[in-house]
Amino acid sequence: MTMIGEIQGTKKEFIKIFNEMCYSRSGWQVWSDLISTMACSIANAVDRSEPRFSNREKEYAHCIERLGGVDKPAKCFAIVVEALERNPEQDFLGELYMELELGNHWKGQFFTPYCVCKMMSEITVGDVDRQIEEKGYISICDPACGAGATLIAAVNSVRNAKHNFQNHVLFVGQDIDRIVGMMCYIQLSLLGCAGYICIGNTITNPLVGHVLFPQEMEGQELWITPMFQSNVWAWRRLFHSLGSLGGSSDTKQTIEKEHYYMFFDFEKKEEMQWEQI
User: Fold this and answer.
1) Residues with Cβ < 8 Å from 203, sequence gap 6 or more?
2) Which residue, among 142, 144, 146, 205, has the nearest Cα to 170 in the 3D structure?
3) 197 in Cβ contact with 222 (< 8 Å)
4) Bridge-based pairing state of the strands 169-175 and 138-142
5) Can you give the pTM of this predicted structure?
6) Average pLDDT, stretch 156-182?
7) What are the pLDDT digits (tens) for 191-219?
8) Which residues of 196-212 are buried (b: 16+ CB within 10 A; e: fewer)?
9) Cα 21 from chain centre
10) Which parts of the chain fold into alpha helices (H)?
11) What tens digit of pLDDT does each residue of 81-129 get?
């Protein structure tokens, strides 16, 4: 039996609270502050590097003050968490953005429907297991990610692969719009994806360098998901660096294939296993 007041993770719940916060401000202003508080909460829970941490703490405090306190933003965040937990096969924030007419009215944006993104993902992802066996991991990039529908569809397309997508698939997105880029960051983070979102113009200021080592260039802003900061990906970056210190590409591949890390399943300790990085 459902308890009274229990969060169901529905758009109706979110919109009700959202409208309550719009009594003296525009919908776009409230949405912008809500998304900023969610993104900053996630990022600063795991990334304390300066000056990012301090800047995001200040941004969070200013947004909460404008929103009238922490209670309603916290409820909205809980609804998003519950929605993606119950149904990861959706672009929850992107669809809300369209329903509230924030994209069309304020930005002239229109996000690709999730069902279309899912079809595109199924066509293009290919043999994930084979690609991972050859390299140890794969990366999936969307240079105009919006709220992340295409990347979320890719998550669900690779979810059934024999390799854990959290440990072997890197999701990268870039968008010129800061708010929708943060929407993508929030959803990928809550889905447990390793990767990062770059806020910046993909055409004039694209991401450069190796995919494992994102660099924040002038005019860009990087949002790195909690999963990408896990030990699994930290070790992978370390082994890549060791392989790059010397030797041929064959040497590098040998290093990547011969080094292993211990992955503990704390719920089933008897099933400890060695997985390839």
Assistant:
1) none
2) 142
3) yes
4) parallel
5) 0.85
6) 91
7) 999 999 999 999 999 999 999 999 999 99
8) bbbbbebeebebeeeeb
9) 26
10) 11-20, 27-46, 52-67, 71-86, 92-99, 102, 114-124, 128-135, 149-158, 165-168, 178-190, 231-244, 249-258
11) 999 999 999 999 999 998 998 876 555 667 778 788 888 888 777 788 8
DSSP bridge partners of 141? 172
How far apart CA 15 and CA 218 sit, in angstroms, is: 36
Q: How many CA atoms lie within 13 A of 264 on its CB side?
A: 4
d(CA 57, CA 45): 11
Which residue would you say has higher pLDDT here, 270 or 70? 70
The per-residue pLDDT for 163 is 83
pLDDT of residue 43 exceeding 90: yes
Q: What angle do CA 216, 53, 196 make, to 5 degrees?
A: 40
DSSP secondary-structure letter at 266? T
CB contact at 8 A, 110 and 103? yes
Give the total residue count for the chain: 277
Closest by CA position to 41, among listed 22, 21, 64: 64
The structure tokens 């979102």 sit at: 197
pLDDT band at 162 (very low <50, low <70, confident <90, very high): confident
Q: Which residue has the tokens 């930290």?
A: 234
Paired strand residues for 173: 142, 197
- What is the rounded CA–CA span in Å between residue 175 and residue 84? 22
Closest CA to 97 of 35, 154, 153, 42: 35
The partner residues of 171 in beta bridges, in order of sequence, read 140, 195
Asked if 15 and 97 touch (Cβ cutoff 8 Å), the reply is no
Residue scoring higher pLDDT (135 or 271): 135
Q: Which residue has the higher pLDDT, 234 or 265?
A: 234
Six-digit token string for 38: 């969610």
Name the nearest CA neighbour of 76 among 64, 88, 62: 64
